[in-house]
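Cross-posted from the bioinformatics board.
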Amino acid sequence: MFNEQMFPYKTTPNPFEPSDCSQPATSLPPSLIVLPSEKSFTPPPHPDHSNNSCLSSTLFSSPNTITEPNTNTSLDTSNPSSASAPSQIDDSNVPSPPPPSNIHLMKTRAKSSIFKPKSFQTIVTNHVPTSVKAALTDSNWYQAMKVEFDALCANHTWTLVDPPPGSHVIGCKWIFKNKYNKDGSLERRKARLVAQGFNQVEGLDFTETFSPVVKPATIRIVLSLAVSAKWPIHQLDINNAFLHGDLQEIVYMS
Amino acid sequence: MYGLKQAPRAWYHKLNTTLTHMGFSSSISDASLFTRFHKDSILLILIYVDDILITGNNVTHIKSLISTLHSQFALKDLGLLSFFLGIEAHWSPTGALHLSQTKYTQQILDKAKMLDAKPQPSPMISSLKLLADASTSFSDPTLYRQIVGALQYLTFTRPDITFSINKVFQFMHNPQLHHWQAVKRILRYIAGTQFHGIRFSPSSSKSLQAFTDADWDSDPDDRKSTSGYCVYFGNNIVSWSSKKQKVVSRSSTEAEYRSLASAMTDISWIQSLLHELHVVVPTPIIHCDNLGAVLLTANPIMHSRTKHFELDLHFIRDKVKHKQVFVRHIPARFQIADAFTKPISGSAFHDFRQKLTMVIVYPP
């Protein structure tokens, strides 16, 4: 069935032979001949050059449908509306892409005049800044940072001092995050100033750690009790929980 | 200040001081549970860092507690329990509470790019014996660790996958291709059972019952056994575990006895917690399907085959002697905990899931 000596694409139909299904099976693998949609396709092409050029001219006459696959002009265009303009220029300056040279039976999108413009999408609206400098220029993020900064000041988190010589100073970092609603829309922008705790040394910057995490079994037992006794169960969320605590140790942060 | 190592501790200290001033006391069994018993008013507070659950028998006291906390901290009152720690809560018309983690499940499946996976009826095929070294290393060990780590939190409302997740968890240090295949099977199972969760139904019974089982010599690599147990408080399952034992057992009775001991420690903890909550419970019952292990708890004899048991295992004898716990033998067909010790599939798995009081929680 499949002749591995012969590359199927090179076997163009002989122009002097009637191109019907009586072709020898060895010349082409059957998967290339038998097309699922024979009706939509033009009959097996006669290698008639006038016919071929006519086909290509109809394909490439409308510049709006064409997008250059690899032109760098399409990279520059940020909005899709201007995408048609450079392709029109390309049509005159750059030689148009060669018409499909193969004329065998395989159906391609280009032969069926299906062209899809390459889309380069960038989400501009939900951009998360990577640096403080970038965040400060954006009014939305500036607002988010101001909320966090006000909360820090309101809780009297720090006092400005000169670090004593030899003291261990840890860094800090702004973290920016978009918070989304359940339906995927943007709820708010959140900025959080965090200390780089991974630089802390035990015994120097902190002595003991503990996290108030309730055991899953405790939750289930209490829920089971509440359900049996028909008690209401309320739910609270503390804002800026970690700003409320009072540190036992002095921590220097730059 | 966020990011500091001592920040959670400082926050807990602050909250503890505030709540102590308001007459609450921190529980000894779980430091994140605060209780206040005042005449006949009961108030319970559960704290998960900055997420707080409040329940009690007096609605006005709950309201005043929330407003007092509001004056101390900036907080958001989220109303009645609906979504807590990634767990969705639904109330059924009969007053039962259904917990599920549908959204969290979808996030895991999305991360593993298996949202459209073909569902499977059970998390692991029953004949599967996972070896530590049987194929080539998995190309992306970080993904393995992330997915399996994320799956572990799913056991909060999914006792049915506890065993399978514990199994694949044992290969976190060196995940191989066949381990990842086992993980994908679990993911296919949870893809088909996204809406499953546990149910807490109102129960008049305050009994504590545990089922323990062990699979002797279950690990083909180091011959260690697996112990598993689950604890019911009234009708509701509250605690369960599946663990590879740390010591090699020489007999199935020894493995069962070890499992019995670990269930006993959990029951003791639950008892002390319930005692702090002023709940009077009848003597707990532990069900075990190994007659040898049951008899060992009652008869202080040293057979040649049992004399090597560690002494600390025999604390269970003390408990039985002082009638602090009953250990009963049950036929294997009534055993619930066997699916915490070995992979099962088919109709046996279906039965197991029903006994775990698991239900399908449809979105409202």
